[in-house]
Write a structure and sequence with these properties.
251 residues; alpha/beta; Rossmann fold; seven-stranded parallel β-sheet; 8 helices; 15% strand; globular
Amino acid sequence: MPAKVALITGAARGIGYGIATCLARQGTRIVIADMNGTSAKKSAAQLAQDTGVKTLGLACDVTSRTQVAALVKKTIKQFGQIDILVNNAGICPFVDIMAMSEDVFKKTLDVNLTGAFHCTQLVAKEMIKRGKGGRIIFITSLAVNVSSAAQGDYAASKAGLHMLMKSFAIALGPKGITCNGVAPGMILTDMTKFHWEKPEPAAFVKQRVPVGRIGTPEDIGNAVTLLCSDAAAYINGVGLIVDGGHQAVCA
């Protein structure tokens, strides 16, 4: 039986690459999709070198249904199947809601929410056609439940993504395709380490995260790997918070 194939959006770095790494360690063949095609190809080559799995790096703007359709077609052409989709692509401009332009608000929703709609619908059609079921994961956020004045667009998109996941879980469950969400807590990436490695934020993590450390992209990747495994066949339509217990701490 050929190894499974996972298509991961926004996976050239950060959480997406951590997810790709964890799935690759299970022998899963990986398609890294990213806005930056050069970065996608470079990351795919590095992952293949590190894990020995077959990979493919492709450029894709998930807000374009045409580009997503091309991404799915190229993946099928290369590997013949898609077993796993991870909707990871996302942006957070951090603009105050009262100063935010319509264009900024719309772009955040287009990337974070509509992009996942395009990917899920088009990949699910291929999964249904193949008749072997599948796993679809939506990378949401703690912003599903909490927000700030500078995250109105982001929180709205992630809350919408959580409910989009539930709708697809209902629609696709009868086809053997499960849909679940993973909400990362504070995660240390190349983009965020400049902040979290400062003394004050580092102390905040020690105080507010019961496990005593900030999360890593691979912490999220491990959760995704669990939900994509055969052991998770009866888990459908749920949002898994992966934050080291941060939200369990009283304010």
